[in-house]
Amino acid sequence: MNIYILTTLLSNGYTWSTQNAFIMIVCNIMCIGIGRYAIKTRSLGPSISILGLEGLGLPELLATTSLGHIIGAGTIIGLNSIGIIQ
């Protein structure tokens, strides 16, 4: 099967906007905040000093932002499907 035909059939027409970016940022910040206190076994590496979060290393940051992107994508798709955002 031609990949271009498949992508044409599966495209949904979502466009990226500032509303989508704001929702994604809020979801990521929320997950970082929750993950900072919820992760019990932390890595032994140094914490990320740029964020000012003591005890939050790179593995924890990657894990929480990955979860934030999953929640953000679900939120954007859900709000778009019920017509709240365009």
UniProtKB/TrEMBL annotation:
- Residues crossing the lipid bilayer are 20-39
**Tree of life domain:** Eukaryota
User: How the protein sits in the membrane?
Assistant: Multi-pass membrane protein
Q: Which InterPro entries match?
A: PSI_centre_PsaK_sf, PSI_PsaG/PsaK, PSI_PsaK, PSI_PsaK_bact
Q: Which keywords annotate this record?
A: Membrane, Photosynthesis, Photosystem I, Plastid, Thylakoid, Transmembrane, Transmembrane helix
Keyword Transmembrane, does the record have it? yes
This protein's major location comes to membrane
Q: Output the GO biological process annotations, alphabetical, semicolon-separated.
A: photosynthesis
Coiled coil where? none
Which GO terms of the cellular component aspect does the record hold?
photosystem I; thylakoid membrane
- Compartments reported by the entry: Cellular thylakoid membrane; Membrane
Q: Which family does it belong to?
A: Belongs to the PsaG/PsaK family.
Question: Mind telling me what this protein is named?
Answer: Photosystem I reaction center subunit PsaK
Originating species = Bornetia secundiflora
